[in-house]
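To illustrate the input format used throughout this study, we show a single complete record. The first block contains the structure-token representation of the backbone; no residue identities are included at this stage. The design step must infer an amino acid for every position from geometry alone.
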């Protein structure tokens, strides 16, 4: 280790900090415990770019990820997975429409391994949701109905997450509501770790969310862009309120309300 540090190998120092929770002390000329209460540890992937060759550039795709692609992204998570969207309706429907073996079971395996899921949705309270959907309804069919369904979709998601949390797992599912205009959907894997990844679907006016462009960012490879989206995600997280899943009633199909005038 001393020889590695003598060569000023920042990569070795990053690995030791991430995996062993130690930092280099130049006065002692050795690594010492970092004493960081937030350190959880993690194994940095041995391959520099574990993605297939054709995905090593920051390719832009059209359309949201399918369930199998999303699960593949989940596989690398060691501590935390963030799903941040408007309603998370598609994420909710994966639990309903997919077989348990295809979607719920892999989620349970990550939870058993100690990975926590943090889900963020736009609150229907206040003006942001109403103004957002009313504005999009001018050029996009179905947006007014999407607003009406917000409470129903939230209640379905709460019901699903509550049931999952009753399983004997180390990790848990958490749900939050934010109150600002939505700009993108984000799936973030171990956001604060050196091996973190983010998949962004950028919302565009006049384009359905299902057909919006998406791209993946790697903390190691796309440091600047990753840092920008990480800051934005954390800004939304900082003003979000956690939902007590126990307080949400069972889903009611008649629970629909139009945007206020």
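Output of the design step:
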């Amino acid at each position: 280790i001393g020889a590695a540090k003598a060569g000023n190998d920042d990569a070795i120092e990053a690995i030791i900090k991430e995996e062993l929770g130690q930092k280099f002390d130049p006065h002692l000329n050795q690594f010492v415990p970092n004493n960081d209460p937030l350190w959880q540890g993690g194994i940095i992937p041995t391959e520099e770019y574990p993605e297939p060759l054709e995905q090593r550039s920051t390719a832009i795709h059209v359309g949201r990820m399918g369930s199998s692609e999303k699960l593949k992204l989940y596989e690398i998570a060691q501590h935390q997975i963030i799903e941040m969207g408007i309603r998370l309706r598609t994420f909710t429907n994966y639990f309903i429409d997919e077989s348990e073996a295809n979607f719920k079971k892999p989620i349970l395996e990550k939870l058993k391994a100690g990975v926590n899921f943090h889900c963020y949705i736009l609150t229907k309270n206040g003006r942001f949701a109403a103004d957002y959907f009313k504005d999009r309804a001018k050029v996009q069919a179905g947006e007014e109905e999407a607003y009406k369904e917000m409470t129903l979709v939230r209640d379905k998601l709460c019901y699903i997450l509550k049931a999952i949390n009753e399983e004997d797992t180390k990790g848990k599912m958490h749900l939050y509501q934010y109150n600002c205009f939505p700009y993108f959907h984000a799936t973030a894997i171990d956001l604060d770790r050196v091996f973190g990844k983010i998949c962004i679907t950028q919302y565009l006016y006049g384009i359905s969310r299902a057909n919006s462009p998406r791209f993946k960012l790697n903390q190691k490879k796309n440091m600047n862009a990753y840092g920008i989206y990480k800051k934005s995600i954390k800004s939304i997280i900082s003003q979000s309120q956690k939902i007590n899943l126990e307080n949400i009633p069972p889903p009611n199909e008649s629970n629909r309300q139009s945007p206020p005038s």
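Structural context for interpreting the output: The first strand starts at residue 22 and ends at 25. The two ends are 66 Å apart (CA to CA).
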